[in-house]
Fold these 2 entries.
Entry 1:
Amino acid sequence: MVDDEAPPVRARGLVKRYKEVLAVDHVDLNVNTGDVYGFLGPNGAGKTTTLRMALGLILPTDGTIELFGRDPMREGARALDGVAGFVEAPRFYPYLSARTNLELLAALDGDGAASRIDEVLDVVELSPRAKHKVGGYSHGMRQRLGIAAALLRNPRLMILDEPATGLDPAGMRDMRTLIRRLANDGITVLLSSHQLPEVQDLCDRVAIVDRGRVVYEGALADLRRQGGAGYRLRTTDDARALEIARAQSGVEGVSATEHGVGFQADEQHVAALSLALAAAGIGILTLAPELATLEDLFFRLTDEAHGADGAAHDKGAQRLVEAT
Amino acid sequence: MSSVSATPGAVAPTAERTGRRPPTARIYGWELRKLVSQKRTYLGLGLGMLLPLIFVVSQIIRGHPPRHADSIFASEIFQSGLATPVLMLTFLAAVFLPLIAALVAGDIVANEDGNGTLKTILTRSVDRGQVFAAKTLAAITYATVAIFLSAATATAAGVAAWGFHSVRTLSDTVVSAPKALLLVFAANAVFLIPLIAVVCIGVLLSTVTRNSAASIVGTMGVTLILAIVSQIPGLEGLHPYLLTQQYFAWQGLLRTPTDWSPILHSLWVCALYTVPALIAGYLFFLRRDVAGG
């Protein structure tokens, strides 16, 4: 039985050191029930190492990570009750069929997992190939079988490490559809990825890691707002609108653009500006928010963390973490 | 997966888990099934059956037993087919049967680590200790099957070639054919005692090195080093405690009356190798990082 009160994932001061290499550097994570949580970072940032610690596959050098309040290293398989997923590519016995692989894993799960084999094979559309040996499967089919194997456990938390890696565009689209459906079904998803559009499309909360450290954790919407919530304005008289915007308190970064006026402001001041324009007899044709993309923010954060010296890295990371 | 949305709710959590762990016997059963499903498993078993056949055929062609043979059973083979399995055990005990045992024991953890399937099974509802126990038991089972298949083949071939007759023992007494048959299988059972120690050393090395070849070679290296030590003058005091010396404890069964002392000695000496290897392997397996694959 899992603890309903405890968050699906909570890491505190998580550290993993391999001799001279600090792979994970005091990582704190908070995945809440119902989150589709993106775990973002470049290759080698420490994402997979963190997930391995979450699943109890490797021992932290320091710190703790708990799943529904249970520490996998202390409580072993009990801590994985209600948890499923895979790190790196899902692996199976190539000399066994997909169905036999799932039968094996269901036997290791118990709790009626065997009765769900047909169901999960249908979900990932592998039923027609279920009797074929996994050794002959394509990468995409193995990814799908990995999802099927995870679903056997009837999870409340799915930990997926780069699930779309190596898939063709249709496979990636289908994987996103499936993840969205898992979330709709009430499964909390921790999704590690370096594919930013995938995360932007699927996730509501994210952690961005770089060189083993969390440089941002929080709501994706907050991150995008922090990245500079910009607006694009087109009016019946852009020249006068530019003057009014520049004179308006709380409106910053006002500039003439190719298609009108650009500026930054919070929602309250945007409302005030629109009233000022109306009072001046200027009609608003377009007033649209222009949020920074996750890609912009990701590179901004990681570039900042990659400052010339360690101090810059530390200060940048600290500021962003504090900002959340 | 283009139609995943066609089955809404199919994967929704439907029942709370009971938190009960599957029994270790179930994991052991699947370890055996994995072994049975791999072609290389049959390599060792096949060789264990082939060598007695080659021996019997070659002796039939030769037409007479070896003269000045070291083993009493070598001169007996033409008198009774039941001498063949005893002679084969004498030949195979030193290197071949430990090698067959090491082939699976050295591979059983390292192979899964290298292929990444160890992480697959360790993220299910089983504890690491259960997996280690199941793998060790599977490796022991394989060694047991290999020994008895080899013995059964040697017995069948020997009896087919030279008949089911009484056999002379190491004490120069004669035992009836049914009793000799019983002794053949009892001797192989006693040989299992040091072989289990070899298996446990193999599983330990497989767990620690994460490399199948290194584990198999390492296991054989340990037995070869012990065999070499037994040949070094001045180290005679160590002989009773060498694992390789226990490979022939079964010969106590082939004396009249039965000499139990080498068998009992073998039991506790082999425990000195088996228990530490098992404990070290278990503890290492519990704490090791699983990063392969």
Note: Chain B has ten helices and two strands.
Entry 2:
Amino acid sequence: MPPVAQHQVTGRRRRSPLPYTWQRGYLLATPALLVMVAILIYPLGYSFIMSFFRWDLSGSAPFAGVGNYTDELFGRQFNQALRNQTIFSVISITVEVVAGMAIALLVNGKLRGMRLARTLLLVPPMIAPAVVGLNFRWLFNTQYGLVDALLRMFNLPNIPWLNHPTWALVSVIVADVWQNTPLMVLLFLAGLQSLPQEPLEAATVDGATPWQRFWHIVLPLMRPVIMIALMLRIIDTFRTFDVVWLMTQGGPGGATNLLTVYAYLLAFQAVDFGHAAAVSYIALGMSLFVLGLLYGIPWLIAKRRAI
Amino acid sequence: MSGTLSRRKFLVASAAVTAGSLAAPWIARAEANEITALLITGGPLYPKYWEKIVQDFTAKTGIKVRYDLLEFTPLTSKVVTLSAAKSSQYDVYSTHTAQIDSYFNHFAPLNSYFSDTELADFYPVAVKYLRDPKSGNLAAIPRNMDSRVQYYRSDIYQEKGLKPAETWEDLVDVGLRLTGNGHYGLVVPGQGDPAQRTFSDLLWQAGGDWVDQANKPAFNSEAGIKALTFYRDLIQKHKIVPPDAVGYQWNENSTEFSSGTVYANFDWPGAFATLSNPETSRVVGKWSTAPYIRDKAAISCAISHAMALNGQSGRTEPAVEFIKYTVGPEAQRLQFDQFTNFPSSQAIAKEVIAAAKGPQATWLQQLETTIANGKEWPKLAGFSKVCTLMFSAIEQALTDQVSPSDSLNQAATEAEEIMRRAGAYD
């Protein structure tokens, strides 16, 4: 170290009222930690407490124990939202992962126009979900929408995209898949490009078919990336709100009511914060449970194999 | 001067920024002669209207008003959030009969600020449903009336030799004769609060009501089932309504009529101005109005946009003065001139009806009749949550997921439990 710099450091140490200890580290981190507590931990804790009270704007907020949770778990509307959430999450994640992997394999090749394709893939994730919701609402409009206009052009029957319970759920899944599949592609593409080439070359020399190379080599090597992708999408699908709200507001007749939409309706239309908080925590618990399964099952299998 | 930032300077600057942020709300606090208001907007004319009202009010009283404008749905969400947080950010709120029961404990009672004579001038139906039925407190004061009449395409009706529907049967007959070639005889909303409003009107018309004498749910009566079956059949059986209407609320409804796709609609007072304006309507000069339909009775909703005083406000007197100004004669005349909003003051309503001519006079008389016969759903504890339940129940019946009777019976059972828990029967 040059002598001048050494002198500066020594000088600063002498002026500082605090020694360089771990306490000082915490002290300096305190403002950031306080901000975290104020904007993250406090609201989470507050809403968790809220979920045990009959909390509306009536003035009194009596303690309800787990009453809000049991009301919802045995309630018709919650169960409809839970069913919708399960269908929505399972189908959209499956389609996004499978299609994402397929497209990633395709654009990973050295075909013409792949650079442009990779650039275009960035567009859907960059669009705000609210805009995606509005666009799909218009695309799927039975009278004025482009999709039904195309169907009519080919003398095919109109599909009641947003006004039939089943088709409405299909429509919001399509919008979600359209927006999020490219993100999967980008993740998988990054994974594919970082795979070691030796095992693949060895398999080719041994006469493995492309399918065998994919199934026995690429897929196992890609497992960590797939796990990350699944984790991101599970968290995301349990938070989906904007697209559904803009397209259907949870209708028709609650057919696209996801847990987030239902919690919003409880809080801002029914003005029932206690039940809304309970629904939010059930949704959080479910996504943590699914994530636990996702990581826990392979871990258990690996442990059993090791034994 | 050195270009590098020392740690000491950085920490001092950070402390200054933090102190500034913490002090900002106090610095930004209103002056003593200034109040704050969260006001409703919608359409390009509203901001100018409020600007004029506030300017005139300040010129007369010297009280400044700092205000924010929001459309109905975000305004409702924001008032809910601010009330839950017991916020004193705004002294005055725009509000509405529809959700007033949620705020009975958060809006300051206005009873003592209005004399009996002053209150008697407002339409009784408006004042009745802005009161807390338990305490009798007046939670808000009506600013303009919200009721609907029938808007129909007079040119098409004349061409086909039709008269506007008077009864439920007429509505189907006329609708069937008008539907075809991409056009529909009627449009009704099918989602959320607008669907509940439509069901509510049909329920009263069929002779039913939301609750019985003991405040127990009664909307699943024979009349309720008849009303919901009729409502569903307009869409699913007779198909005189666009199929996407099950996802429509008021805006989509109005647009279907003003674009010329649909030939009849039940719309609010503001539609009169919108449909007369070539910038917002393709059917200018091609429509007329008629009374709302009837069955056993000729009843539909009579509600109102209103003004409320935040219970947390520390500037009560100037805030009340502003509220009084917004419901006063000048403001009511101005909002009628600007948006054809129907006055909540009976005296001003009589004045504008007397001054109106031709179709506008007819329309105003039709509206006044609707208001005179009008009703609103009960303001009982827990009814806001019942409304959310009803949205789903009505939508499920309209989309043929459940039969009207099953849907209403199930909703009635759940509604009673919700109201019991909320203390409606205590």
Note: The two ends of chain B are 74 Å apart (CA to CA).
